Amino acid sequence: MEMKGLGWGLASPLTGATLIRYYRSLHMKMSLAGSRRSKDAPQAPAFISIPAAEVQDQLKQILASPGFRRSARLQRFLRLAVEQTLAGKTDQLKEYIIGRDVFDRGTDYDPRVDSIVRVEAQRLRKKLREYYRTHGHTDPILINLQSGTYVPAFARAPHPHSALVGVKAESMVTLARPDPRTVAVFPFSNLSPEPEQEYFCDGITEDIINALSAIPELQVIGRTSLFALKRTNSDPHEIGVRLGAGTIIEGSVRKAGELLRVSARIVDSETRQTRWSQVFDRKTSDVFSIEDEIARSIALTLRADRPPVWSQKAPTTEAHILYLKGRQAWNQLTREGYQTAIAQFSRAISLYPDFAPPYAGLADTYTWLSLWGMMRPREALPKAKEAARQALRLDPASAQAHSSLAAARFFYDWDWQESVLLLQRALDLQPSYLDGHQIHGVCLLMLGRFEEALLSLERAVHLDPLSVRMNRTVGLAYYFQGRAHEAQKWLEAAIALDPDSKESHYLLARLHLRESRYDEALKEAQQCQTNAGALAVSVLGIARIRTGDSAGALAILESLSAMSLAKYVDPLASAYVHVALGNSDAALECLEKSLMERSPAALLLNIDPLFDEIRSDPRFQKLVSSLKFP
């Protein structure tokens, strides 16, 4: 796979090291290497090599600028962050304390309910970027509030007396050293001759990742990014440093019959020193006790306050492997992959009906089939809800079960409040649960809470930067917010990771349509027509209309009608084409049918730019009102 024509000058094969260098560049504006810290966890001091007096002088310059003079709260926020960091009191830069001291929220302030600090932090980062692009473009000192933390970083500008207008200040900020509490668990190596044991090794890796993800003080790199590098020969220590992971977990598994040898070690990615290592010779039935000891050793080594939390253990190795095969198929993000996932999860449930994870996996699969119109939502979502309920009944402490139920309740029951509460509970249980952050972000996006949605989605992609789904979803959020430049970067990143992803090409085609780049939209739409779903077909119809081929668009409508005779077709697809053709009555009729079918995509109607041409129609506004969004 090569990255060509993406604007970053990369045309070399994507080795593991190249992938990380690429994403380090792509995500620089969010300070990837130094930002994976929990917003409420104690923070390591910023990497300061500048006299405090110079930083104080720079702070005064910023606070006196036009962009900050008119905002007393942002002034207080920035002053508190800088002064506490200079005083070595970064442990005071927690969301609760900031909300109480800066935003006068009082002692009963609950950050889970009131997102004021996170939203204002995003405003502050934006104001700082604007300042350094304009009034502060020749300033000698850079102050940057890194995304994902409230601890500022300080650095000297490389050319303090040259014009820096247009240069992103954050790209010049010295990144902090890798955080020891950011952990990368590399896939355990299979030293056994049987390829089937790969699933067993992956199961050990995934169990440890999930257990560590429940510790609030830790930031755990997502499995997709690390498993993507599994087959490379890249130095894991180099990758750890580049991902900002100060702690690397490595291991190997040799299995012969019922005998098992597992070796594991904890390594400081910067110094390469081994902080803990052990070899376990046990029976395969003892694998879960081995995992528990490894995870507890990691927590102890990193001095985490809370021990690892385990979700329900698999009753047998076979149950675990069936579940892992289902998850692997689900991660393919294709109709075939989802169908395989359903078969694997269903087999696990039939053999082990008291094992919760396959129920949650089944719920996620049905939800995503409905999200992309691969299955009738009125058929898929009730199945998702029932499976999620069973998972939660069997394991009330499962973050995945809470997240799965929240998605079903949101998309099928339209219970906005309960869904968000379930998602918040999932992230309380497992703060580094990536799928929970993604669904949380998507739900907030549909509710029009853009800034909060981006906080969740960017947190997810920080932790799993090589995930196609995460990159694509961040691009989707920026698209609906009208931030085309950012949206294009993230969508092209998703395509770089998987050039054959129809969903990513579909979203990029939509972006080009919004920006009136119709020839480019047509090209991207044509990229996603092989075995295309209805929405991908519809975007081709719109692109044809915009490039003067109305007859081609009418043929698309006929094609969608023919498709509906053989399988479910979301009426939303026809609604899009009718809007572009100017057929308001037909468009509204199709949109109403789509809502009746509980199409998740139709819930975006209030922010979807493809409906701008009929937005003022009273009938459209009546459909929006029927959703009863808060």
Please, could you describe this protein's structure?
With 630 residues, the chain is an alpha/beta fold. The chain has helices at 16-26, 52-63, 66-69, 72-86, 95-101, 116-133, 197-213, 223-228, 236-243, 287-301, 317-330, 335-351, 356-371, 377-394, 399-413, 416-429, 434-446, 450-463, 468-480, 484-497, 502-514, 518-526, 534-546, 550-566, 571-581, 584-596, 618-626; strands spanning 141-145, 152-156, 179-185, 189-190, 219-220, 245-256, 259-268, 274-283. The strands form two sheets. Strands 3, 4, 5, 6, 7 and 8 form a six-stranded mixed beta sheet that branches. The longest helix has 18 residues, at 116-133. The protein is globular and about 70 Å long. The protein starts with 15 loop residues before the first helix and ends with a helix.
